[in-house]
Amino acid sequence: MIKNYLLIAFRNAWRHKGYAFINLLGLSIGLACSFIIFLWIEDETKVNRFHENQETLFQAKRHVKFTDGQVFTWGSVTQPMSLALEKEYPEVAHAEMLSWKNEMILREGEQAFRQEGRYADSAFFEIFSFPFIMGDPTTALDDPSSIVITEKLAEKYYGADWREKDILGSTFTVSDIFVNNEVFDYKLTGVCENVSKLSTIEFEFILPTGNFYKQNEWVSHWGNSGMQMFIQTIPGVELAGLNEKIVDIISRNQEGSNAEVFLQPLSETYLYGRFDNAVQSGGRIEYVRIFLIVALFILIIASINFMNLATARSGKRAREIGVRKAVGANKSALFSQFMGESLIMSGMAMIVAVLIVHAILPFFNELTDKEIFIDYTQPHYILGVLGITIFMGVLSGLYPAIFLSSFETIQVLKGTLKSNLSAAQFRKVLVVFQFSLSILLIIGTITVFRQVDYIRTKNLGMDRDNLVYFNWEGGLIDGYERFKRELTANPAIDNVTLSSQNPLSVGNSTQDPSWEGKDPDATILFNVINTEYDFISTMRMTLKDDTLNGINSLGSRDFSPDFTTDSTAYIINEQSAKVMGMESPLGKTIDMWGQKGQIIGVVNDFHFSSFYETIDPLIIRFDPENTFMIGVRLAAGATPEGLAHLQEVYQRYNPEYPFKYRFLDESYEEMYQSEILIGKLANYFSIVAIIISCLGLFGLASFTAEQRTKELGIRKVLGASVSNLVILLTRDFTWLVLIAFVIAAPVAFYFLNDWLSKFEFRIAMGPGVFVGAAVLTLFIAWLTISYQSLRAATANPVESIRSE
Questions:
Q1: Which of 532, 538, 557, 530 is nearest to 496 (CA)?
Q2: d(CA 188, CA 167)
Q3: How far apart, in Å, are the Cα atoms of 704 and each of 24, 423, 709, 796?
Q4: Pairing between β-strand 146-150 and β-strand 183-192 as defined by DSSP bridges
């Protein structure tokens, strides 16, 4: 019996190859696309979950409340807290400090390269699972002069056969701008495997924290936070209880602090990294949920095609069903047959889908910067493929199986089976639902694209084009003034300055500033940039000519060597002037970190942090000794000449250091890499959804034209033009698409407005997006059905009405 059913299924598919191909193609594309999304979702949910001790690993964070009521959450904490946690809380097995990733010069013998590494406390490799190839992870960082590198660096410095060499004990000379560019020697004590893409803790080498602490005394103060902390608790510790105990550990040791400490499971830091006023408010998990919905949308759209075409062509199989019922087949047997046919089609589609996935997975990995692969030795992959296949088979075939198996035997055999109105209406409902989902994706894609484009093109309050930056290190430190003069003497270079921060990603902040009239109970956070002369002009920020009310005659200005008092001067942004309550800030005095100085300029607010956040108060202070990067403004239209001159001068002043620079606009793009990637993925998946929907629409248009052949022939004989007939055939589908738009538009507005609300600076959800989506969808629908409509309208009426 099963063999007979299979034979009938393949014969039926072969007899109607066009419709079978549309079904197979739609299901295959839908399954492949959904499979890719599920693989991406699985990879996202695996981040930071590979550590053996993951159940007891946490990151320490802090909430800080300010006078205006806002609560900020940071992943950096104070270093003395690690000692206090290990000493005072038996629940804590290890409290490890870890620096932010930083680029340093690593020299071994004659080879010197810039590599990205971190400083870590001695138990780093004990609590985290970064497998060792050489050395002992439990003791690798015990010696303050030790270094651990990844296998990638081992091959880079020692060659492809490094595993066969005795490299442990060899010496690396390391220079880092964050240890005052001093040079330290470290002995190689371990080589670990390359860090997986599933880790948010990325590095190419690890150094002990000893020299970092010695060269940065600020780290040891309770009031300064500049490193990350990771906690390993003893097994069985209840997180909520421990958080209650440590919540005030900083305020108990630092007078005036209102920081509240809490621990977040390491396994959650990637997906749940965003906090809003001390409440966890999302993060990457939002994109996981969005694409999970997109995958389900695509599966449903693909299955709707199958249902529509199966029920639409029911008349073609009516006699077969009648004969089977006449010879004894009951309803359940017919139901099983048609459900089996659906499962066979789903199975064939899954085979094609898997082949498609394997073909495009390398390109997808490159696009998303992931290392996704399918391991068929893992049971969940096999079960997942089988589960999705069965789910699609049942979803696609359930209604057609019920519908076809319910035909009345006598009506079918007498030829009196009439078109089922309810089935036709159901097909229309499915088309509306299908296009509603597609329109949702189109509106979503347009909105994401517009927001990303807004971020990438918005005036930031400074010019990020033609600006390169690199480390201030080595011979550039003592020879900086001569280096700067020689650069600016070339017309291809406009200006040069020093800075402690990337001006579009400021990470330093303080609550220390005071001024006349400040509320002693006020807690206000100011971001800080240390710099030298020409900073404002090099960055091309705009200064207010006068004060905020436009009446002060002094005028804002940049730091200048013409004013000896500028060594203690400050420039503030508009937001700082507001929170300080200064309508005329120029000439007023600020006391910060024990240094009193006058405000000499007010810079117009510019975006120095994420578009998710407001523009906060900022203080720019003259302090060249505490800067780390050089910014060079290249002349417009002379980028190649400027870079060539910069490299030539750099190598003369700093021959021991490899020259590596970055453009500011490139680093700005990286800040929004997630949003840009999500925009690209949304584009691709929306296109897939539209293609699948159009495949179904094409099939239905073909069927409709076939069913109305005689009607069209008679209309043509009676004088109907080709355009009249095309309009007749497209009218019903046009109404269905318009109804789908009316349903989808308010749903899209609600969810996309919620997504946009996460950005402090965002586009408006105007009517243009919806009108554009409607026009695009109608155009695609008309384009899809135009071929069949024109073909039917231009057919010879003699052929269609000959038997009449």
A1: 538
A2: 7
A3: 20, 14, 9, 17
A4: parallel
Question: What is the sign, positive or negative, of the torsion defined by CA atoms of 347, 349, 353, 356?
Answer: positive
Partners of 274 in the β-ladder: 282
Q: Measure CA 456 to chain center.
A: 15
pLDDT digits (tens, 9 = 90+) for 653-674: 998 888 889 998 888 888 888 8
Helix, strand, or coil here: 53?
coil
Q: Is 16:316 a contact under the CB 8 Å cutoff?
A: yes
**d(C-alpha 538, C-alpha 534), whole Å:** 6
- Return the structure tokens found at 195: 């860090």
Question: 89-98, 246-255, 389-398, 599-608: lowest mean pLDDT where?
Answer: 389-398
In angstroms, the CA 13 to CA 780 distance is 28
Per-residue model confidence as pLDDT tens digits over 42-87:
999 999 999 999 999 999 999 988 776 778 888 889 999 999 999 9
For the record, the structure tokens of 655 come out as: 């021959």
Amino acid letter, residue 33: C
Residue 158 has pLDDT above 80, yes or no: yes
In degrees rounded to 5, what are phi and psi of residue 570?
-135, 150
In total, the chain counts a number of residues equal to 804
Is the pTM for the entire model greater than 0.90? no
| Exposure string over 328-338, b if 16+ CB within 10 A, otherwise e | ebeeeebbbbb
Give whole-number Cα distances, 550 to 10, 141, 588, in Å: 83, 59, 16
677, 681, 686, 688 alpha-carbon torsion, rounded to 10°: 160
Q: What is the pLDDT of residue 675?
A: 80
> Count of CB atoms within 10 A of residue 544's CB?
19
List the single range of 209-218, 413-422, 545-554 with lowest mean pLDDT: 545-554
Q: Of all helices (H) and strands (E), which one includes residue 71? A: strand 71-74
